[in-house]
Amino acid sequence: MAATVVSNKRVILKRYVTGLVSEDDMEVVTVEAPPLAVPAGSKTVVVKNLYISCDPYMRNRMTYHEEPSYVPDFVLGEVLVNFGVMKVISSGHQDFNAGDLVWGITGWEEYTVIDNPETLFKINHPELPLSYYTGILGMPGLTAYGGFFEVAKPKKGEYVFISSAFGAVGQIVGQLAKITGCYVVGSAGSDEKVNLLKTKFGFDDAFNYKKELDLEATLKRCFPDGIDIYFENVGGAMLDAVLPNMRVAGRIAACGMISQYNLEQPEGVYNTICIVTKRLRMQGFLVFDFYDKYYQIEEQIARYLKEGKVAYTEDVVEGLDAAPAALVKLFTSSSIGKQLVAVAREHKAEHANFI
Amino acid sequence: MAATVVSNKRVILKRYVTGLVSEDDMEVVTVEAPPLAVPAGSKTVVVKNLYISCDPYMRNRMTYHEEPSYVPDFVLGEVLVNFGVMKVISSGHQDFNAGDLVWGITGWEEYTVIDNPETLFKINHPELPLSYYTGILGMPGLTAYGGFFEVAKPKKGEYVFISSAFGAVGQIVGQLAKITGCYVVGSAGSDEKVNLLKTKFGFDDAFNYKKELDLEATLKRCFPDGIDIYFENVGGAMLDAVLPNMRVAGRIAACGMISQYNLEQPEGVYNTICIVTKRLRMQGFLVFDFYDKYYQIEEQIARYLKEGKVAYTEDVVEGLDAAPAALVKLFTSSSIGKQLVAVAREHKAEHANFI
């Protein structure tokens, strides 16, 4: 195989992004693939990418940071990287064999050499749609589960508000909160999403934040007795509206602040005094904080899926050529469901909409 | 005694405060004292107030709130209330006897009937200056100890920043942090305070925030490796400058935000995204959270005082007539040490400056 020239389509960062990310910030190019067989003595693995995930935090990596950010900046002219679902095609690592299905960090391309295979997770439920491992069974699912149970520490009967509730993480948090016996309200950016949150995802209530003139009053209307848990995906003005609506000893699980990622100058938050007066705990976290619990959480979520206790939607585009537009959709509120790219479909016809 | 008319000087709220509190917002009046003997069957106690404490959080209670705040608003024409040191002169409660020295919530007046004596703490170290029970052995000490050890959860070698470090709570936190083996920097509002923090209170470094043009750069200079723990007393622009200087997994113990209390419109905080990217925990607390640990903490702090391990300063004014001006001093950065009012000195000449 080493002598065969295999091409490798990939999405590269064409320029550092300022303001709203656009398709023109990326470029789809075709280069020669790396050797598809791992050299003798190497502990790397070579994967064929099946699905890659579009996630809001990638925006941060597309801007040049003078000082290192919490995740490394993407490199100009180099392939984008993010979570994906892959098939191992060659392995020098004892834990992996050719044919294994895995998920973890990979390139936005057809073939990737993974230098640190110990960061990959095995896929234990291939009977479920493989693409779910970019979402409810992958990074967003682990983030939602860990952020809700480990950081927000919910109790039955508590009042939960989730912003960007139709996002990959928000959808899952809302359903976990309902399973826990909480009262759950979500915000989203379109009437269609609001409707789906209430009908398909079991939220007690939801609102379209774009139609609300006074978010603080809206939250007061939705939560006359206040909010115990705010699962924060948005930041800025939404956080500011939430703070005065929090109950004493409330928790804010700070997962992301998507409203701020494309701004040159972030919005001010004026009501931070509420953190003192209401004795709030606001805590940030990353998915890596929960890596050691992944396989337990995978089992739990797989069970919920099979029992029909959680719903899930995806917004899948076909092929790497469509990947830049798919990433941009995250920030224009136009993805309906977990946004991902099918790079290669070779496993089975799994998109029969499981739920 | 019931037939004797005893007078009771008191400080009342004359008008609700907007903006900076001034002496004119209060008035010193003399009224008839309540009966100084508890009626048969009552479980109240009557106290003679010896020292009353001036604390920044009182400012919040002087403003009218449409919705209930975390502490009740003071009532127009009624006596101010806050922590003080008192002698029980009559008791209907089984836990207290005439002559007991106690501290807790009382009125800004000579004599007060305490309806809920179970909120009072006994003073177990009367050999120390009694006035210290308005400070290092009272509410500020308990706040500092609980906020630092229970909320910030310090580890030896960590980098600690304390704003309003010369304040009643900040001074104590800094010294507890040094005892714990942390590197400690404080901010204060005058060169005199900065100097005292470094010479008398053992801070590794300190700066006068009024002389710094770029607080974010100042903190970067003081903490080239970042801040593990920020003990927040100030809020607003200082919080904004701290956030980018926090280290991953840092903690912000949010005790107060004195810079904001007199503002009609609070300052914006723009760097809240750091809570996500650095996985920070920012947590508010009130002294009541630590009430159940008070007597242990009293013993620990009394031991530190006797061993000379902590220094302490007070700014004492004499008599209730001077109380309004003393409260205003808190907000003009002109108190040097714990601000309090000696209402009556009858115990002993304890102000020999213990340390």
TrEMBL record, chains A, B:
GO terms for molecular function: 2-alkenal reductase [NAD(P)H] activity. It holds the Pfam family ADH_zinc_N. SMART domains: PKS_ER. Coiled coil: none annotated. The keyword Oxidoreductase applies. Keywords: Oxidoreductase. Residues 22-341 form the Enoyl reductase (ER) domain. InterPro entries: ADH-like_C, ADH_N_2, ER, GroES-like_sf, MDR_fam, NAD(P)-bd_dom_sf. The keyword Nucleotide-binding does not apply. Signal peptide: none annotated. PANTHER family: OS12G0226400 PROTEIN (PTHR43205:SF75), PROSTAGLANDIN REDUCTASE (PTHR43205). Homodimer. This is Enoyl reductase (ER) domain-containing protein.
